[in-house]
Amino acid sequence: MKIAVLVSGGVDSSVALARLHEQGHEVTAFYLKIWLEDELSFLGDCPWEEDLSFVRALCEQLSIPLQVVPLQEAYRDRIVSYTINEVRAGRTPSPDVLCNARIKFGAFLEAIDSSYEKVASGHYGQIRQAADGSYELFCSPDEVKDQTYFLSHLSQAQLSRILLPIGHMTKQEVREEAQRYLVPSRDRKDSQGICFLGKISFTEFIEHYLGTQAGDIIEEETGDLLGSHNGFWFHTIGQRHGLRLSGGPWYVVRKDTATNAVFVSRRYHAEDKKRDAFVMRDVHFIGQRPELSTVSMKVRHGPERVMAELKPLADGRYAVLLAKRDQGLAPGQFAVMYNGDVCLGSGVIDD
Questions:
Q1: pTM across the whole model
Q2: Helix axes 11-22, 171-181, angle to 10 degrees
Q3: CA dihedral sign, ordered 309, 313, 316, 320
Q4: Using an 8 Å Cβ cutoff, are 118 and 4 in contact?
Q5: Which positions are annotated as active-site residues?
Q6: Strands 215-219 and 261-265, how do they pair?
Q7: Coil, strand, or helix at residue 5?
Q8: What CATH code would you report for 277-349?
Q9: Which of 121, 190, 288, 310 could in theory staple to 6 by disulfide, Cβ–Cβ 3.0 to 4.6 A?
């Protein structure tokens, strides 16, 4: 097949590219450039130069053509704006989820010509076609590296175009393949951070757009003033670190966006604060809406899933009751639903 392969300079996408090349497909590597120069001004060194050097070295090694695709405006409009608006509203955004749906398998699919039969990436997840012709998203066998949480907002049309060449492998197996192929990035550490942010910390990213503004840290139960912070947008519900308060541990329990106040408590884990229920909005199912009242659910990326009861509400939202409490629930986060190893879709924690 003629395949467009998304490459980042990391070991996962490098092995995906090498595998498809070895299998005899006609592959072209694509590196997505998303940062505008004014957004890079506070960073110093360009964050993609090192990544792109690894990509170029691999493409030269395998004699594979490479194209750099500028998607700066799409990224700013579809991801940066969403992220900043969510943070400004006091919510906790999940830009990685929308990055896949709107950029890697959104704007990029719109940018390339239709001669490419598939678009491949180095994500950990599996896509299978069911008997009725629909597509299903399955978990990776590597529970720690599984990225179905971040792929949970994809559509049927997108899944029909996507290949995940390493999705059935564990990270250890990918590392071994990287050594066999002698890919230049074989000894690179896994990247951290939010989608394409790379070396940029989320705090730096938020400060660049929203700046700082002194505000009060207040004890939820007593109303006592305990200290100050640099802006409510730097804090999320359940946060413990970075408050610089004595007598703790203290946890963020609430934010007042109108007064720029952050409320904290030492009773975050008390029995009367169960935090096992929420309402989910903007619910997206990858396939047909399943007739299920019980699913397993992730409320963040990672291996842990918890059973959950779903109850549809009249306005299209869902009431969710978790089998055990989760102290990290925060409005704006994505909750991802599973039936066994099948990822059913996701929704946004509303309240």
A1: 0.90
A2: 60
A3: negative
A4: yes
A5: 99, 195
A6: parallel
A7: strand
A8: 2.40.30.10
A9: 121
**Taken in order 171, 173, 179, 182, is the CA torsion positive or negative?**
negative
CA 110/CA 103 separation, integer angstroms? 9
Span 173-179, average pLDDT: 96
- The two three-digit tokens of residue 271, written as one number: 């029995």
DSSP 3-state of 142: coil
Going by pLDDT thresholds of 50, 70 and 90, the confidence category of residue 237 is: confident
Distance from the Cα of residue 190 to its chain's centroid: 15
213-265 has CATH 2.30.30.280 classification: yes
Helix or strand run (H / E) with residue 179 = helix 171-181
2-6/26-33 β-pairing: parallel
Superfamily grouping for domain 2-122+165-202 = HUPs (3.40.50.620)
Q: Which residue do the tokens 């963040």 mark?
A: 300
Other residues' Cβ atoms within 10 Å of the Cβ of residue 254: 14
> What local confidence, expressed as pLDDT, does residue 204 receive?
82
pLDDT at 239: 87
Residue 270 burial (10 A CB sphere; 0-12, 13-18, 19+): exposed
Which region, left, alpha or beta, applies to residue 290 given φ > 0 means left and ψ of -120 to 50 means alpha? beta
Residue 118 pairs in a beta bridge with 3
Would you list the domain boundaries of the chain? 2-122+165-202, 213-265, 277-349
Phi (first) and psi of residue 308, to 5 degrees: -145, 145
Phi, psi angles (nearest 5°) of residue 156: -60, -40
